[in-house]
Design brief:
There is one protein chain. It contains five helices and two strands; from the N terminus they run βααβααα. It is globular and about 40 Å long. It has a two-stranded antiparallel ribbon with strand order 1-2. It is mainly α. 62% of the residues lie in helices and 4% in strands. The longest helix is centred in the N-terminal third of the chain and has 14 residues, at 8-21.
């Protein structure tokens, strides 16, 4: 990843690797590209860390509260249990991309 961003090629390589490691057959290329497009919310042809976190949280199992708690912990960068203005700015810009 360059500057914490995955290109389509890098994302799809990792995606196929995860599927293979879990004995799941990779879908056809058009479906793989649709998965990338789902994560790339701002259509800039790369998936940044916030897009990746938000996309994974949407796809993972667990209750809505579990997902919210997990995302909160990611955005609470210093782990103090609060979201600073800077952390809130990063959070809101990533949420509105999704």
């Amino acid at each position: 990843a360059i500057d914490g961003k995955l290109t389509r090629e890098q994302f799809l390589e990792a995606y196929k690797g995860i599927l293979t490691a879990n004995a799941i057959e990779a879908p056809v290329e058009s479906v793989q590209n649709a998965v990338f497009d789902l994560f790339d919310r701002d259509d800039n042809n790369v998936v940044d860390l916030m897009e990746l976190i938000c996309g994974i949280s949407l796809l993972c199992s667990g209750s809505e509260d579990d997902k919210i708690h997990a995302v909160f912990e990611v955005f609470d960068e210093n782990g103090d249990g609060f979201i600073s203005m800077d952390e809130m700015f990063k959070f809101l810009t990533s949420v509105f991309k999704v």
